[in-house]
Amino acid sequence: xxxxxxxxxxxxxxxxxxxxxxxxxxxxxxxxxxxxxxxxxxxxxxxxxxxxxxxxxxxxxxxxxxxxxxxxxxxxxxxxxxxxxxxxxxxxxxxxxxxxxxxxxxxxxxxxxxxxxxxxxxxxxxxxxxxxxxxxxxxxxxxxxxxxxxxxxxxxxxxxxxxxxxxxxxxxxxxxxxxxxxxxxxxxxxxxxxxxxxxxxxxxxxxxxxxxxxxxxxxxxxxxxxxxxxxxxxxxxxxxxxxxxxxxxxxxxxxxxxxxxxxxxxxxxxxxxxxxxxxxxxxxxxxxxxxxxxxxxxxxxxxxxxxxxxxxxxxxxxxxxxxxxxxxxxxxxxxxxxxxxxxxxxxxxxxx
Length: 352
Known about the structure:
The chain is α/β, with parallel strands linked by helices. It has helices at residues 41-48, 52-55, 101-104, 147-151, 153-165, 181-192, 205-213, 227-235, 250-259, 281-286, 301-309, 328-337, and strands spanning 3-9, 15-21, 29-39, 63-64, 68-76, 88-91, 94-95, 115-116, 130-134, 138-140, 173-177, 197-202, 218-221, 240-245, 260-268, 290-293, 319-324, 344-348. The chain has two domains: 3-152 and 315-348, Medium-chain alcohol dehydrogenases, catalytic domain (Quinone Oxidoreductase, Chain A, domain 1, Alpha-Beta Complex); 156-293, 3-Layer(aba) Sandwich (Rossmann fold). The protein is 28% helix and 28% strand. Strands 3, 5, 6, 9, 10, 17 and 18 form a seven-stranded mixed beta sheet that branches. It has a six-stranded parallel beta sheet with strand order 13-12-11-14-15-16, with helices on both faces. It starts with a strand and ends with a strand. 47% of the residues are buried.
């Protein structure tokens, strides 16, 4: 049986670069050669053992991390019809059964038998030379979309899903909290969706500066001011219509509920790793605020790919660090040290 290199996680901070068998294909499976793989904050939290997924027993060891990837088709199963070897592809973040009621109505993200790629109940992910995926969970890369861009389709699709769930529309004023990849991309995508003004809040000056360069109208340093002080100062007489909360800060989520206008919407696309005892449900009720949780990127891959293909959206300025695959441990270590400046870390696979 052919072998490949993979970074397998056996427990907290126990990541082993090793040889494992290349996955065997079923009739409708596709073997993908991974060329790029982004490192996500969720990857690091699982690696370090700090993720609530670990505490809740949702991570099963050993497993292979990595869900932000791009590559080429190496081999196809006998029943594959849409893809062929050499095609450039990206993959969904989950693998569903394809047969249950939720799958059949298009909500495969709610499949009870589903496995998340590289995270919960993991379908082995892309910290490896090869990745096997069912054909139905793969998307062809348009010719104009690079492998770097392809590896960022997943977080971009998650950001777009959050913007859409926040119901951002033409003329809206929007606040994005958080300056990680999803937060900054949400700010850019909110503008594409028609927002008249986009504010972004975070703690890191360098990241706020980049968000401003990519199109945010105003930045808010949350170490220096509160949202209640800064939002009216930035908007003047206008009210705040929509919030995308991408920071994972319970305090910023609570502040967001206080600054959005009555009947406004707050969409949260972050993990908080704990419970919030300070939440005041009465303000949500009395001010008719919609609070919406956003998980995943259902249906957003194709719109993101289309925006990339026509040059409307390019997330690659967010790539701040690159590593060859055999330096994956160094990359995870650097995530802990370079929080002030690093945004997206990218693994480049052998032969990429």
